[in-house]
Amino acid sequence: MIRILSSQQIKALDAYTIQHEPIASIDLMERACRAFVNWFTERFDGRNTIAIVCGTGNNGGDGLGIARMLQEWSYSVKVFVIRGSSETEDFKVNLERLRGKVEVVEITSLDETIFSEYDVLIDAIFGSGLTRPPEGLFAQAIHLMNKSVAVRIAVDIPSGLLADKVSKGEIFKADFTVTFQMPKLAFLFPSNHSFTGTWCTVDIGLNKSFIKEQQTSYYYIAAKDIRKILKPRSKFDHKGTYGHALLMAGSYGKMGAALLSGRAVLRAGVGLLTMHVPECGYVILQSSIPEAMASIDEHIHFITAIPELDKYTVVGTGPGLGQDKLTVKAFRKLLEDFRKPVVLDADALNILSDNRELLLLIPAGSILTPHPKEFERLVGKWSDDFERLDKQKSLAKQLKSVVVLKGANTSIASPEGAVYFNSTGNPGMATGGTGDVLTGILTGLLAQGYSSLDTAIAGVYLHGLSGDIAARERSMVSLIASDIIEFLPAAFKKIMHEQKV
Length: 501
Ligand SMILES: NC(=O)C1=CN([C@@H]2O[C@H](COP(=O)(O)OP(=O)(O)OC[C@H]3O[C@@H](n4cnc5c(N)ncnc54)[C@H](O)[C@@H]3O)[C@@H](O)[C@H]2O)[C@@H](O)CC1
Ligand SMILES: Nc1ncnc2c1ncn2[C@@H]1O[C@H](COP(=O)(O)OP(=O)(O)O)[C@@H](O)[C@H]1O
Ligand SMILES: [K+]
Prior knowledge:
UDP-N-acetylmuramoyl-L-alanine:D-glutamate ligase
């Protein structure tokens, strides 16, 4: 897991690294500049004219160091400095090192065309030291940079964006953000995408053991975390080893959702799958998923009862379920009778929103997978993404269950208060049915004995990874939910290194 630290902790981390590596502060800055420049030179060639706009703190110091290095690489660079109330030592040193090499212009007033002749604008005004909204020349410069047609790149953090609080005022709108060491919490929220653009982290060698010791509730999921979670199969395993899942899904006109979920349960590696569907789904199910056993409801159009539950390891429900009052009754009975974890999605969540007393019946250790609208129905409106995150953490705690809030960088809240952000997935997945596939993957993994949290982390990651492979093979535009099931085996292989065998 990549630990996401606050600005305060990052400041302490810088100081700790400087003291214990040991390394001079200016040399650490040099490393940060080098990491940025490595990223930059791989993407932009010497034909680009570059303006670097610097503040007078260490972010500005980075900007000056970057200017020097780019000049050494024969790029055409000009530096603009906006003076704040004070200069850091490393800013001063880097300004001195730049003397005679790169033109430095101090901005005292701004005219509209100041940045118009450049191909690339690099923002090094503020980084993690920002404490309040930019004003005056700072705000005006950011405003003008945002109006420019140049490619905009932020050093560490887009100026004006706070790493772990709600930001107000003028904020640099980067096409790319190259951030040091680890993602910042604010980068993971939908509302900040227009500021960070595409972001990436570059390693500047900050002290790893200090990072490990820091208290944090926020993590960014990496491939190796999933490799650690997934258990390899052993020679004498049999289908009983991998659980028996019951999927209650589908209604007249929405059997597709049930099928997508059911196929995904199987591809996630379950031992046995039974699907409880309304009568209208019988032929559809038997002819399209021969691997699944069918349990048929008495009602033609929707589910009105639950089958005998004893033999099931886990129950997944919601996709295509509908909200008829007889279905609500059956759902209530499920929650009353089944004491093992359940996976709840789509209409199961909508039923919970309309029948709030049912929330109390959810077995501990369950997994809920709302998209933002379903989440709003469950918890009410939020005023910003930080409040949304708090609501997600509270719901997970209240239900003693894992709450998976879906979207880009899906967040997974544990009942203990930790939040894990997904690093896979792409906008090609914004198409009907992909959530049903996720429900299936989670149901299939949970049935195999993974903990609810491990199931959610691995399932969400693999779902996104499969979506990424599918987008590569089929394009984001053409990606459909079935593709995510189709490429799930490739995603498992990628994680478990089976392709080496
Ligand atoms: N050794 C280190 O500390 C390292 C720091 N690095 C860089 O240093 C940055 C952090 O540097 P600083 O802590 O100097 O802070 P910044 O350079 O982000 O901000 C400069 C100063 O501006 C002032 N300020 C904050 N908000 C303001 C506002 N709205 N208007 C006017 N002034 C405002 C603050 O006093 C702050 O200290 C990181 O983002 C990163 O880019 C990197 O060089 C890596 C090593
Ligand atoms: N822009 C995106 N980037 C990454 N993943 C996405 C994006 N848009 C949607 N997804 C993923 O696709 C799935 C959509 O689920 P959901 O909204 O429930 O769809 P449906 O109800 O049609 O099945 C979620 O897992 C979500 O994380
Ligand atoms: K910046």
